[in-house]
User: Fold this.
Amino acid sequence: MKALALQMRPGASGSLPEGQELLDLSVVMPVHNEEQALPEVLDEALRALAEAPFRFEIVLVDDASTDDSLAILEAFQQQHPEVTIRILRHERNRGIAAACDTLFAAARGRYVFLNASDGQCKTSESVRMMELRDRHDLVVGRREAKHYSLRRALISRAFNLLPWLLFGVRTHDAGSIKLVRRELLDVPLCSNGPFREAERIIRAKRRGYRIGVLAVENRPRLGGQATGARWGLVGQAVRDLMRCWWRIVVRRER
Assistant:
C-alpha cells in the first residue's frame, strides 16, 4: 500500500471519520528525514505493542522527507501486514504542528499516543501510560534527561515555566511524548506552531480534564537533526504564547 498524499490541511477534529471502527489506541508519529532512526524506532514499536492488551494502530505521516524515510515506512508496512499500519504523506514540508494535525485527524483510537520518530523516546511508554487512562485524560511524559545544548535547555525551561506564571497551569514537559483522550483533540486551539501542545494542556486543565505526568526515559537522537531551537520557531512560540494569554486570560476563553 502506497502512502496517501495529503495536499490540503485536514481539520484538527478528533471526531472519527464515518464508517471507521474505533480502536483502543492510535500510536502516531510525524516523520521528516529520519532514515537513520526509523528502522530501530519502528522495530521497537512493534515489539512494545506485540503483547499489548488492547487494539491498536500505528499511523505515520511523512512530512515531505528528502531522504529514504518514505521508502523505509512503506517497506515496514509491507513487511507487517498483520499490523494496522497507515502511512500518510505531505507533498510539501509543513512543519511539526501541521504534521500532528494530520495525525490527530486520521487517528482512530479512543486514546492517541504521540511520539517522535527520532528514537529519543520509546513506544513502550504508551503501554505504561495506557495503564493510567482510568485516572487521567492526558498523560505527559516528563523526560528524565533531555540531551539539549545549553541554549535549547534554557528555551525549554522558559516555555515550561511561563505557562505556570501566565495561566496557573503546569505543562510539565509539553514538548515530550503524551497520551491524549480522543475528545481532547476537539478542543479548539489558536497556536499555529510549537506552543500548540502546551496550549492543549492549558485548555484541557482549565476545562476540568485530569492531567497526569509520568517520568520517561529519553535517549540521544538516533539520527536526523534537531530543529526545535531555531530562532524562527522560538519567535513563533512566543507569538502563540501571547495570543493564548490574550484569549484565555484576558478574554476568558476556555
In short: The first strand starts at residue 4 and ends at 6. The chain is about 35% helix and 20% strand. Strands lie at 4-6, 23-31, 56-63, 85-90, 109-114, 138-143, 178-181, 211-216. The chain has a mean pLDDT of 88.
